[in-house]
């Protein structure tokens, strides 16, 4: 459905951030993009959604295709019209608009009339009942979890077939992270929305995704089915903080680390 | 220093009320004259409000402090005045609307789009450039004389309230028309921002450019819309002002008075621009007429001139105690 083919991204004409990233999101899939800070997760998502240009970034090589069509030269709103919507890292709600107004802005690209839009609003409230309670508060005054829900709900209002979800767990309590991921799963099953999600929280992401890519320094170093990744020794050691001996105590910390197999 | 938020508002209200009542209370001023000064102040205020409104609209939707609003008012007024020499006034106004929309397209394409996501200062400098360009370009194509706009409203003032005050009160018909137009315009804008999808999108863009883009709001189109609306507001302001005083270069200087108005009312607030404009209009007129003569007598000053600095001092006081203005949006910070 979404194919990213060897893209290179350069910021400010000099800083090479992505060095040939390829990935594939199948129809109806949840694909996780994993990696540490600065690995290039957000850049990959923004390259797809065409939000890079506003940050002086540019896709210089490779191609991005959505349903067989080249999309890397379109504008962000062209892409939203084609059904790809990004939920940005750090939520980015419109602070001075109410929660409901935030959601309604998500329907800006839709031309199918009031009835359909209010039905979509009801659907969002069905998945996020908390938002119905807070519908008339300014979203700047709502909690982090509510803002994340608002951001996802706002993207849903555009009736996307794919959502690029950037770091939904950021700054949220573990219980809330779990709740949000559960809803992502539900949306995937019931509404047939495909997800490409960038996450640092490898554990949670691999539990909910079906496929994963690991990004390091702007390259995909490993990819595979989510449960294969979760049981891979390297991933366990470097991303899940587990070693063969299970959870390690800091008292017995080794002073050498296992060499990453993919660097060999 | 921790002053509760209502203090500056209460203090200002008290001051204004006192300033308004004082000349009447001393009994030295004829009530009819007092009302005439009040109305004169309100009318100047309406004009300040209209210029400030243009500022607020563009600031709300793009975070750009549009220094060129005053130049746009002059440009629009010149367009109406010169076009009206060849066609009826209503056709000239429509022509001016077309011109201002074309201008909005040009500004978006040539200035805003290349400067997307740059510092606010870069954009401010760009609008400063637009100001000088519009002033000069306006003279190149429309000429630099003083032109008249004749709206067909009878010039001779009406006498009203003759039975309430001795001698009645003189009111200009065009002032009344101006006030009604301004009220209608503001009402229409309020509905537009609150109730329509486009208005909501404009407010969304004001809050967060990138997020707005990410959900498919096209920034370029939004900017064209908001600059067009500001252009139409400029036409209304320009026609009212030009109809009263003639179209001349000094109109563009009004922009400088709109600055304290938006500081007083709040940068993001349409009602703030209106109330701020009226307060400053009335305040400076009252101060000039009733406060200056006793001051001159008491301190042996050379002249009045309060009208020229009153607005700025008021704005300065507001910056100290309530920087977001009367109706401005409070910064929402999560801690």
Q: Which term fits the overall shape of chain B?
A: globular
Q: How many separate structural domains of chain A?
A: 2
State the strand order across the main sheet of chain A. 6-7-8-3-9-10
Major sheet characteristics of chain A: 6 strands, mixed
N-to-C order of helices and strands of chain B: HHHHHEEHHHHHHH
- Fourth CATH level, the homologous superfamily of the largest domain in chain A: P-loop containing nucleotide triphosphate hydrolases
Q: How many angstroms does the end-to-end distance of chain B come to?
A: 21 Å
Low-confidence parts of chain A lasting 5 or more residues at pLDDT below 50? none
- What is the CATH first-level class name of chain B? Mainly Alpha
Number of helices of chain B: 12
Largest beta sheet of chain B, briefly?
Answer: 2 strands, antiparallel
Q: Please state roughly what percent of the residues of chain A sit in beta strands, choosing from under 5%, 5-15%, 15-25%, 25-35%, 35-45% or over 45%.
A: 25-35%
Mean of residue pLDDT of chain A? 89
Task: Return the domain count of chain B.
Answer: 1
The CATH architecture of chain B can be named as: Orthogonal Bundle
Characterize the structure shown.
The complex is a heterodimer of chains A (264) and B (335). With 264 residues, chain A is of the alpha/beta class. Chain A folds into 2 domains: 2-83 and 160-263, P-loop containing nucleotide triphosphate hydrolases (Rossmann fold); 93-159, no CATH class. Helices cover 35% and strands 27% of the residues of chain A. In chain A, strand 9 (211-216) and strand 10 (219-225) form a beta hairpin. The radius of gyration of chain A is 19 Å and the shape is globular. Chain B is an all-alpha fold and 335 residues long. Chain B has a single domain, classed as Orthogonal Bundle (ABC transporter involved in vitamin B12 uptake, BtuC). Chain B has a two-stranded antiparallel ribbon with strand order 1-2. In chain B, strand 1 and strand 2 (169-171) form a beta hairpin. In chain B, helix 1 (6-25) crosses helix 11 (270-299), helix 2 (31-62) crosses helix 7 and helix 11 crosses helix 12. Chain B is globular, with a radius of gyration of 21 Å. The two termini of chain B are 21 Å apart. Classes of the chains: A alpha/beta (264), B mainly alpha (335). Chain A binds chain B through residues 49, 51, 53-56, 75-77, 79-81, 85-88, 92-97, 101-102, 104-109, 138, 140-141, 144, 151, 154-155, 157-158, and chain B through 116-117, 197, 200-201, 203-204, 206-218, 268, 329, 332, 334.
């Amino acid at each position: 459905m979404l194919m990213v083919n060897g893209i290179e991204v350069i910021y400010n004409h000099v800083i090479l951030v992505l060095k040939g990233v390829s990935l594939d999101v199948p129809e109806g899939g949840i694909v996780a993009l994993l990696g540490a800070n600065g690995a290039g997760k957000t850049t990959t998502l923004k390259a797809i959604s065409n939000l890079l240009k506003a940050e002086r970034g540019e896709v210089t090589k490779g191609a991005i295709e959505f349903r067989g069509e080249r999309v890397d030269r379109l504008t962000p709103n062209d892409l939203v019209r084609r059904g790809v919507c990004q939920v940005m890292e750090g939520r980015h709600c419109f602070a001075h608009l109410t929660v409901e107004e935030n959601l309604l802005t998500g329907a800006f690209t839709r031309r199918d009339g009031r009835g359909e839009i209010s039905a979509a609003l009801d659907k969002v409230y069905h998945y996020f009942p908390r938002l119905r309670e807070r519908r008339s508060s300014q979203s700047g005054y709502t909690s982090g979890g509510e803002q994340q829900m608002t951001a996802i709900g706002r993207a849903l209002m555009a009736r996307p077939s794919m959502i690029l979800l950037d770091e939904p767990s950021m700054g949220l309590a573990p219980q809330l992270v779990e709740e949000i991921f559960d809803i992502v799963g539900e949306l995937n099953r019931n509404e047939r929305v495909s997800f490409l999600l960038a996450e640092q929280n490898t554990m949670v992401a691999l539990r909910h995704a079906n496929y994963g890519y690991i990004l390091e320094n702007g390259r995909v170093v490993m990819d595979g089915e989510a449960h294969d990744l979760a049981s891979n020794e390297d991933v366990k050691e470097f991303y899940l903080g587990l070693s063969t001996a299970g959870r390690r105590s800091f008292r017995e910390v080794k002073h050498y680390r296992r060499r990453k197999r993919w660097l060999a | 220093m921790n002053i509760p938020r209502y203090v500056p508002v209460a203090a200002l209200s008290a001051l204004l009320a006192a300033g308004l009542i004082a000349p009447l209370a001393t009994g030295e001023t004829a009530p009819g004259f007092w009302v005439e000064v009040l109305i004169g102040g309100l009318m100047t205020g309406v004009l300040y409000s209209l210029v400030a409104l243009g500022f607020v609209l563009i600031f709300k939707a793009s975070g750009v402090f549009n220094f060129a609003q005053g130049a746009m008012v002059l440009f629009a007024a010149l367009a109406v005045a010169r076009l009206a020499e060849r066609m009826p006034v209503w056709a000239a106004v429509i022509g001016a609307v077309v011109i201002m929309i074309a201008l909005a397209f040009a500004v978006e394409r040539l200035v805003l789009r290349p400067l997307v996501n740059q510092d606010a200062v870069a954009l401010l400098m760009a609008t400063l450039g637009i100001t000088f360009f519009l002033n000069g370009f306006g003279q190149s194509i429309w000429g630099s004389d003083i032109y008249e706009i004749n709206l067909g409203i009878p010039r001779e003032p009406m006498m009203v309230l003759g039975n309430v005050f001795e001698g009645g009160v003189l009111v200009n018909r065009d002032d009344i028309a101006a006030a009604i137009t301004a009220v209608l315009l503001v009402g229409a804008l309020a509905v537009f921002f609150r109730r329509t999808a486009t208005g909501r999108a404009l407010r969304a863009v004001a809050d967060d450019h990138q997020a707005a883009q990410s959900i498919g709001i096209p920034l370029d189109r939004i900017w064209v819309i908001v600059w067009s609306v500001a252009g139409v507001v400029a036409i209304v302001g320009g026609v009212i002002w030009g109809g009263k005083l003639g179209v001349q270069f000094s109109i563009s200087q009004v922009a400088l008075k709109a600055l304290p108005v938006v500081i007083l009312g709040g940068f993001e607030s349409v009602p703030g621009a209106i109330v701020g404009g009226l307060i400053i209009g009335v305040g400076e007129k009252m101060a000039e007429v009733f406060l200056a003569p006793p001051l001159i007598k008491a301190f042996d000053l050379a002249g009045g001139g309060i009208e020229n600095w009153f607005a700025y001092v008021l704005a300065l006081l507001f910056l100290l105690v309530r920087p977001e203005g009367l109706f401005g949006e409070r910064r929402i910070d999560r801690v």
